[in-house]
């Protein structure tokens, strides 16, 4: 578990096939990307932050892939929010109603004010949560080792991924908190931009 103030980063048992989960323990308790783990897993990580499963106010999704939303069923009463059109995908697959983000906006959790940055490429509605000067919760856009999200799934597009990486490289932050494996830095973004050039 990694922690920066009231932001907690948890890696799953199986880091390749399940996503990391991030908990923002603020005035609103926000859980980012409930993956394929069991209810006990979510109970455990929430306990680490001094909370319970019922306390989660908001579930935020970086994008609409199974390994990032399968655990939605454990949070029936929390608000749920994702960028369009991935919000529709999650609605259809989980049966829960989501609030759809249509354009870049602010997510104010209390003490933290995140910017929601639209970063398509891995999927149409992929987005990042950006905390200026600190970190970016980047889903599957880019990983610590400079690799990047696959673009061969539905809604994926290499050109869009490239633009999204460039967009990220212009922001001011120290760490990336990706959807899989380890935490990275801004260097990871520049490496990914270099690595992407080999695909052209
Ligand atoms: Zn994905």
What tags apply to this protein structure?
alpha/beta; 5 helices; Metallo-beta-lactamase, Chain A; seven-stranded mixed beta sheet; 24% helix; 200 residues; six-stranded mixed beta sheet; 13 strands
Can you describe this structure?
The structure is a single chain. By secondary structure, the protein is of the alpha/beta class. The chain has one domain: 4-Layer Sandwich (Metallo-beta-lactamase, Chain A), CATH 3.60.15.10. The chain has five helices and 13 strands. It has helices at 39-48, 66-69, 86-94, 158-169, 186-197, and strands at 2-4, 7-10, 21-25, 29-32, 58-60, 79-83, 99-101, 105-108, 113-118, 127-131, 135-139, 175-178, 184-185. The strands form two sheets. The chain has a seven-stranded mixed β-sheet with strand order 1-2-3-4-5-6-7, with helices on one face. The chain has a six-stranded mixed β-sheet with strand order 8-9-10-11-12-13. Helix 4 (158-169) runs antiparallel to helix 5 (186-197). It is globular. It starts with a strand and ends with a helix.
């Amino acid at each position: 578990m990694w922690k920066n103030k009231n932001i907690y980063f948890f890696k799953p048992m199986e880091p390749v096939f399940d996503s990391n989960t991030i908990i923002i323990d603020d005035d609103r308790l926000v859980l980012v990307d409930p993956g394929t783990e069991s209810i006990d897993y979510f109970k455990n990580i929430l306990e680490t932050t001094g909370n319970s499963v019922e306390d989660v106010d908001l579930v935020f999704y970086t994008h609409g892939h199974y390994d990032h939303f399968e655990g939605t069923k454990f949070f029936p009463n929390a608000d749920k929010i994702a960028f369009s059109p991935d919000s529709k995908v999650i609605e259809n697959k989980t049966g829960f109603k989501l609030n759809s983000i249509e354009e870049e906006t602010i997510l104010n959790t209390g003490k933290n004010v995140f910017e929601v940055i639209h970063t398509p490429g891995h999927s149409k509605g992929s987005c990042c949560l950006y905390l200026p000067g600190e970190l970016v919760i980047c889903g599957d856009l880019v990983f610590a080792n400079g690799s990047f999200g696959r673009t061969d799934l539905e809604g994926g597009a290499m050109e869009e991924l490239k633009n999204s990486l460039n967009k990220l490289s212009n922001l001011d932050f120290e760490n990336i908190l990706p959807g899989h494996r380890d935490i990275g830095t801004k260097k990871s973004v520049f490496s990914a931009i270099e690595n992407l050039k080999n695909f052209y």
